[in-house]
Design brief:
The structure is a homodimer. By secondary structure, chain A is mainly alpha-helical. Chain A is built from seven helices and no strands. Chain A starts with a helix and ends with a helix. The interface between A and B is large, with 44 and 45 residues.
Chain lengths: 238, 238
């Protein structure tokens, strides 16, 4: 392989990595703005999140097309090939993070004018901070190619699940106390679920970084907390 | 390119398509069994769905690895390359369908021993039939490379969303009528959401089939019904 072709591959890979960085920044902003919109009951900010999603979807398509073209033109092998595959996987996870943030924004708009218990939102803000940190750390781990930081994120998913479960239980108690709490609590339940799923995507990206750097997969069984599903059966038994 | 290499590519592509067919059949069975488990309150069947998910995850990894090796070895172009990319995308969507079916199974197990209103499950069974049909038709459209059938599935997503919305509203009314309905209704709300998301993945696969056969994407804006999110605001306003 002549040096000229290697340089072209490096240019194309770097262009892909830049698009991943742009997607990552945008996805983080969408999650952050959606939650800010929730805490402020700001429907206009929520609407702006929905509009950012179009850019994110476009980036994902651009990355996939460019990655496929690079594979066809440059015929990368081994680590170079894993690098390209990694951009496809990460773009897919980030596109889904954007969808989840957009859905949180939609719920904020749907809750416009409704009363809700401010205390019910506190746990959600805490969960969103944790999930945003996971996203930031895992995207940094990709840029730095740091397996250690990626594995940290993967393991910390247990904490995300535990916090999600406690928020879920809390919202259930509000619903049972007073039927007037049911509507907004249902919105918040789904918002919590969306945040937990954003956390799952951060963990997926961690698995991709691990595969990229080591060539091996993390164990099939991601560390999981008890989860909300058993929480429901506990609460109903009590 | 010698005939020998083309034949090897065809063999590898066919092997990938067979794995997609196996994944598709398994994903359909998982959804079907999970819903059967729900209608029968059969925790053992629900547990078996969870075990099938390991096989599905393994297939997805096998497909991704084999697809990447094929690209590296055979250096396919144009339609051949789209064929390989399509298997990666479809495997990713089917793996998520399996996760969603597994989650439905988990909820069935969590609901063991709980009372629920049988009428509340009827709408869900209807939604699951619709979604299973979408999966079947779109997987057939992939095998047959039929853009027409893929577009049908893509358009019918509006129907899936409309049915999901009506089930959501119905479950909200049960929750408001009687606090004793809240726990199981919450399980069913999330089950309905999981089914709606399975429908979304069928639509993703339809988009992939369209791209595979025509080389072009479907419009960014998938047809969407009003959706459950506005349903909640309507119900609370009333």
């Amino acid at each position: 392989m002549s040096e000229h072709i290697v340089t072209a591959f490096d240019q194309e890979l770097n262009a892909l990595k830049q698009k991943i960085a742009e997607m990552g920044g945008l996805a983080e902003k969408m999650v952050s703005d959606a939650m800010l919109a929730l805490s402020r009951r700001d429907a206009e900010l929520a609407q702006s999140v929905r509009q950012m999603d179009a850019r994110l979807d476009a980036l994902q398509r651009e990355i996939e097309e460019a990655a496929v073209l690079t594979i066809a033109r440059r015929q990368p092998m081994a680590v170079d090939l894993r690098d390209i595959v990694a951009t496809i996987r990460i773009a897919s996870d980030l596109e889904r993070v954007g969808d989840l943030a957009k859905n949180i924004g939609k719920r904020v708009m749907a809750m416009e004018g409704q009363t809700l218990l401010p205390k019910a939102v506190i746990g959600l803000m805490h969960l969103s901070k944790l999930v945003l940190m996971q996203l930031k750390v895992v995207l940094d781990s990709y840029t730095a190619r740091s397996v250690e930081n990626a594995v940290d994120v993967w393991q910390r998913d247990t904490e995300v699940d535990a916090l999600y479960t406690s928020i879920f239980r809390e919202l259930l108690t509000y619903m049972m106390e007073d039927p007037r709490n049911i509507t907004f609590s249902t919105h918040l339940l789904f918002t919590a679920k969306n945040l937990e799923r954003i956390g799952d995507h951060a963990t997926n990206i961690a698995e991709t970084v691990h595969y990229l750097v080591t060539g091996a997969s993390l164990p099939l069984d991601r560390p999981k907390g008890p989860g909300s599903i058993t929480a429901l059966s506990d609460v109903s038994a009590g």
